[in-house]
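In practice, a research group might receive sequence data for several interacting partners and want a quick structural hypothesis before committing to experiments. The following worked case mirrors that situation: the sequences arrive first, and a predicted assembly follows.
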Amino acid sequence: MISQFFVLSQRGDNIVFRDYRGDVQKGSAEVFFRKVKFWKEDDKEEAPPVFNLDGVNYFHVKVVGLLFVATTRNNLSPSLVLELLQRIARVIKDYLGVLSEGSLRKNFVLVYELLDEVMDFGYVQTTSTEVLKSYIFNEPIVVDTDRLPSLGPAALFVQGAKRMPGTAVTKSVVAHEPGGRKREEIFVDIIEKISVTFSSSGYILTSEIDGTIQMKSYLTGNPEIRLALNDDLSIGRGGRSIYDYSGSSGSGSVILDDCNFHESVHLDSFDVDRTLTLAPSDGEFPVMNYRITQEFKPPFRINSLIEEAGPLKAEVILKNYAEFPSSITANTIVVEMPLPTYTTRVNYELEPGAVGQMTDFKESNRRLEWSLKKVISLAAAHW
Amino acid sequence: MQLRQLAGSRAPGTDDSKRELFKKVISYMTIGIDVSAVFSEMVMCSATSDIVLKKMCYLYVGNYAKNNPDLALLTINFLQRDCKDEDPMIRGLALRSLCSLRVANLVEYLVGPLGNGLKDGNSYVRMVASIGVLKLYHISASTCMDADFPAMLKHLMLNDKDAQVVANCLTSLQEIWGLEASTSEEAAREREMLLSKAVIYYFLNRIKEFSEWAQCIVLELVAKYVPSDSNEIFDVMNLLEDRLQHANGAVVLATIKVFLQLTLSMTDVHQQVYERIKSPLLTLVSSGSPEQSYAVLSHLHLLVMRAPFIFSSDYKHFYCQYNEPFYVKKLKLEMLTAVANESNTYDIVTELCEYAANVDIPMARESIRAVGKIALQQYDVNAIVDRLLQFLEMEKEHVTAETLVLVKDLLRKYPQWSHDCIAVVGNISSKNVQEPKAKAALIWMLGEYAQDMQDAPYILESLIENWDEEHSAEVRLHLLTAIMKCFLRRPPETQKALGAALAAGLADFHQDVHDRALFYYRLLKYDVSVAERVVNPPKQAVSVFADTQSSEVKDRIFDEFNSLSVVYQKPSYMFTDKEHRGPFAFSEELGNLSIDTDLANDVVPAQRVEENDKDLLLSTSEKEENHGSINNSSAYDAPSYDGSRMVGALQPQQDLVSLDQPPPANTPASLAMDDLFGLGLPVAPSPTPPPLALKLNAKAVLDPNSFQQKWRQLPVAASQEISLNPQGVSALSSPQVLLRHMQGHSIQCIASGGQAPNFKFFFFAQKEDEPSTYLVECVINSAACKAQLKIKADDQSTTQAFSTLFQSVLSEFGLP
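A structural hypothesis for the assembly, expressed as tokens:
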């Protein structure tokens, strides 16, 4: 059972603090923040999401720069608590529309109301936005949604990159539209994280796709929704080694290594026609997570060439090839390159005529960032 | 104070202005400003019909009542009234606040509303009440028990229609009975009742009605259930199969725990479970936030460590991504190390070598260590040694340092590689090595391979010249030993340096350094050939480096699967107080599910720890260091040295020896040394006795304590790795069979343990006609069909005969 829950700002201020059991000292937030901040003096290592200090276990997740923390003296399931923290963040976002320090501060009474119902005496009661609706009476105070980073698993997949959220997705599940009438809307996003490792000779060493089908529904009455996936979708790779690239699997068919589903999804007809049936509840949730290690053609191919141009100087040529059909364009692409700690200065030279491209040397984490607003296929950009 | 006036004056105002005011009060409360001064005003304001206002007021009251018990009394009245409100929301909220006051002398007001709450027609109120009982229990256990609330909860748990009410009753009862069980027999009985077949099936059949969080609680309970037969096990597993596809990692892990616990006694099914859970776990790792995937990864890590061979084809999943936090990468590196086998070592090491060039220094270090560990697992050593040597050529300080330590360990295990390694190590300038551990490793190699390294004496000499600047005692100790070894091999070149080193060592302020210098000095003075035998004995290659964690501890952690123990890699007793160990603690009492079936079970823990300590010692410090400590226990004091003596000490060795010393103690010293030999030296090979048929006493007895003592005292007389026949290995599924087989040949087992594929046994045997004992440590790896033997014996001369006998008996095992 969880003893305390609190949300800290980046500077360590308490934004929300709820004590459920009173068996952990009041100053825990401060203790926690100091520990996280000075985890290792050379700040090379981040504090792990779970640690124990004087018999108190601290769990934390970082969401849009805020620290969501739970404390307990008991030996709980770490994935339960971390999952819960993430879920609390999502519920709060569902209610406030946007999750940010400002919106939390403005709506902390509503947040307390939510926290009271989410947990009682440290035991989880519910995290369903839908169920909570009947217990919540405060109205959210909507904050300006301009230039706020998006939240949720979606945000995690685009680490660092700026993905502009549609304003509609940032509205609260309980707020009334100014016009009085509620818009009947549903948003379905497919977010895929593609990880590919190339050898220096350009050969693909590993490749994996981690995907999520994300749904956010504003439909009244929770009608049943059917999601039809590819007919030729199959799950699991039988006895074959998952890295067995040699046996080329018939063109077009998609083989998922594994997947999991949200609890509201019914899989009755899934085996027959690959259809998911669900009655989407309010709020944002992942309908399905999946993982593919099947061979695929990566959308980009990066080529780098390093030359030592002098005793204290190195020249790097980075080339980024877009290898997707010309009917598609890719937006807001960022290429990052870690640099040695002793890098003092970086000069960049973009290809002449490059439009909407930017380069930046992030001194704090020794990273070079090359951002491209728009990439059209077959136009290889390089500098 | 200003607030107080505001609250008072505005009290009759509209709800809206009150809301603003209340918000302000609560925001002060959040940031830690004490606003308890306005308590009475707040209570007065709470007589309102506005539910938002009421909620804020409840929150405030809950926060301050504990420290203001008198004022809390004021709230009782309106809370009790609210508990009878028409609106079930208000009834529930009021009841929750009432139970959250945490004021002991108000409990009498609680009993009535709670009783009503449990019988309320609305499920929300019952939900609140069922947790309320638990809150009451924590304020006053006796009131709670006297009112017979647990019985009511039990009734509700087994009959209520609402799944959340049922789940809350279960959590409350688990906590209450868990705490009561130590004092009340009835509670202990009730607690077992929760694990009865009827109750477990009741929960399992309803599992889909529960919320995902309640499912976790139910699954945690089911994991402790002991089914009566294998059909039942399969029924439960089939029922829960689809829980593995849940998107909530906590549900999946709780399900996995059930599967693992249920199948512990069924080796092959247990293995199938591993295969089955692999995919869901990997999916969870790659979806979700880094924090969530860390929690899952920790569990995956545990499983990989237990059964690396099952995951050996999935090694690519454990490759690190550059943007992962260090704590994730570290786990992944350990998993990569564990799953390395013949077929994937090349790929893994190639990948690790990429990381070694990483700009992230801790990461680079860890990667190099991982490469070294894989080398020590003896797959493809050849190629790995080459790569390690390449690291040395990268000329980065941290890489060099880390690699040196590894090369040293490698040489201890594979002395045959010394030639290649030494060639490269010799090229390293000692000035580029600053870290104590690395420096010590380099110095060790300089000493050990003095004859192969042209410059060894001179490098050591220059290091000794800088003695005063060397801050690490470890390095200075190694320096002393190395110069001794060097001296014994190349006396003319080293003599001067040795004198300087001993003098500096004797003047050292560090006790161990001082003592070791003194010890060497006296040893040389006594007899150089004895010194040779002490410092430079023929060394045996280290066959196995110790595991840092005993298998006892590992099993404990495994039993606490899906808890913090896995993340911390420590069993819960190491980081939680007794009263907070909670529901996990009771799995221990309830039937020991551990694999050990041996009768001598009780001895095992002590034995293992003992073993480990010893091995650990050997792997962290050099064997020779054991010798250094002898002076601490010897009878005489270290003579005091002054500066003038030191000058004298810098003269050649002959002079050094003749320095006027308190003359006594030659005899005791040599006696002490004899003891030492017993510890560190395999006794000089005696003429191999004819392989006479060794007769063993069929009824040998040895109690665990004397076994332990002997094991500690005796040197390893023989150490060997042998192959086993596959039939024998397959018969090993139950260690009992092996024990009986060995017993049939008069070899008794004193302790055994481990789990597939690694088993560890301690055997002993006695000669038929005399009380001469043989001790054997036998580590069997059933996956590789290999056994590693360490034999110790009272009578060293017959070790070989015994070893042959033992091996033949072992190889007969499993044959028809």
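Before designing any experiment, note the following. The radius of gyration of chain A is 24 Å. Residues 153 and 159 of chain A are 10 Å apart (CA to CA).
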